[in-house]
Amino acid sequence: MTNDFAQHPVDETSAASLAKNRLHYGLVDVSNRAAFANWLQADSRGFHGPTLSNEQVDSNFAGVTYRRTVGVWDESLTAPNIPVATTSSWAEQLTVPGGLSIDAWAISSVTVSPTHRRRGIARSLLEGELRSAADMGLPMAILTVSESTIYARFGFGPAVFASDLSIDTQRATFLSSERVGTVQHVSADEFIDQAPEIFERIRRFTPGQIKVWSMRWDQISGLVPGDEEYTKKTRIVRYDDDNGTPRGFVVYRVTGGGIDLTNHKLTVDYLLAENADAYTALWRYVLEVDLVREVRAELRSVDEPLLWQLSDRRAVTATPVDHLWLRILDVPVALSARHYSGSAVIGFAVTDGLGFAQGNFLLETDKAGLPHVTSIDDFPAEAAVVELSVSALSSLYLGGVTVSSLVASGQVRENTANAAVTLERVFHSPTTPWLSVWF
Ligand SMILES: CC(C)(COP(=O)(O)OP(=O)(O)OC[C@H]1O[C@@H](n2cnc3c(N)ncnc32)[C@H](O)[C@@H]1OP(=O)(O)O)[C@@H](O)C(=O)NCCC(=O)NCCS
User: Fold this and answer.
1) Residue of 13, 30, 95, 426 with fewest CB within 10 Å of its CB?
2) Atom of ligand 1 at shortest distance to CA of 146?
């Protein structure tokens, strides 16, 4: 995908429906700093963020204006230039099973001012985004969510889950005492210079990851203005293997302490490890820092190897949360974009209230797991057939959700005996899907 998407006009159906309520739906002119600043302040207000400083506006102006930046304006207000609703979207590459990726429409900054809530503005925005994405030929939309109650109605389903970890350092002892490589503190600039390349190698084999845009690396390492406390507290440690090659980083902060200096909390803001040695060494590092009682880490995988490395896995309290939501727009393209485990013939009867994915589709995979997908009227007798919503299919897509669980919960119906077993066998991803950032 090129950056052409940024100027794709807003959806006419949504524009017409908002216009009926005297609201104007349009693209923000992101070459105009003042117009962008109005949009950005509305976005920040929408998430209960602060009024942003000039420096913060500048860094966002430099960092995110490559995106398609959309607003809704109410010209009857005394400040008509500040949008009452916002979205920002761009074409992403989402990693899928098989070390492949699919083009996906990433949607972010969905806000509607509290003064204009529950009048259908978000619905117009979301449906508009989906129609625009389909119009641009994108087979899927993706987003991370503030609340898990909002997006299923638009056909999204949770597909990548994350774990927030709280680790009691007094109980967290490694089973193995083997140590290889070296760890050392490095500067934010070194991190910015080296981490994206390592991440790029990890991303390609981890379903659920997306490309991380450069401003996000700046944010992780504390280089963006606006959160001085974060910037001051952030420390970065790099792991080098025995040949001296950087293989991972941990970005962390130590806070708290008080009168009892042993009572600090260490927060892992990002941990990136290219191989098992880097992973173990970086976790060992954070768990062994002196004067720390608790280590916290957000957005970790729901399948962290760390739990298997500790003598007491109850040292870790893991709180799972839905993280990445997917919305398939084009079923044949989406199903053809990933690889599967072995051969099967599977029929999907998909329902979609918005129409994009509605229909019957046949997925045939060969022994190597390569797919062939067709849109059909009737399923052949040998097909394992399931009936499901586009939201459930989107949840299953990356192979991190158990099919039997969706059957038991009524989200997937087996139209042929044991269809779920076949689906599970070929869909399951050997690498647990994980997404390490919000967007
Ligand atoms: C969430 C938000 C964008 C909704 O905007 P809105 O214009 O009030 O939403 P709409 O009026 O278009 O509602 C559309 C549908 O979603 C439902 N809905 C809206 N917000 C919801 C919420 N927070 N939880 C559950 N359902 C919600 C509405 O009931 C409506 O349902 P229906 O059409 O199926 O009957 C807005 O409340 C907001 O900006 N919240 C704060 C920022 C935020 O959390 N954004 C989401 C980021 S992922």
Assistant:
1) 13
2) 48
* pLDDT for the residue numbered 58: 97
pLDDT, one tens digit per residue, over 245-290 is 999 999 999 999 888 899 999 999 999 999 999 999 999 999 999 9
Kindly state whether residue 433 falls inside one of the protein's structural domains: no
Which residues belong to the annotated binding site for acetyl-CoA? 110-112, 118-123, 146-147
Spatial strand order of the sheet with 316-328 comes to: 23-27, 68-74, 85-96, 100-112, 140-144, 316-328, 157-168, 292-300, 264-273, 246-256, 235-240, 182-185
Q: Which domain holds residue 106?
A: 3-138
The answer to whether the CB of 122 is under 6 A from ligand 1 is yes
Whether residues 192 and 299 share a domain: the answer is yes
The predicted-structure confidence for 145-193, as pLDDT tens digits, reads as follows: 999 999 999 999 999 999 999 999 999 999 999 999 999 999 999 999 9
371-407 confidence digits (pLDDT tens): 999 999 999 999 999 999 999 999 999 999 999 999 9
Does 439 qualify as catalytic in the annotation?
yes
Q: What is the CATH number of the domain that holds 267?
A: 3.40.630.30
C-beta 281 within 6 A of ligand 1: no
151 is catalytic: yes
| Residue 409 neighbours by CB under 8 Å, 6+ apart | none
One domain for residues 184 and 69? no
User: To test the ligand 1 pocket, which listed residue (43, 72, 112) has its Cβ within 8 A of the most ligand atoms?
Assistant: 112
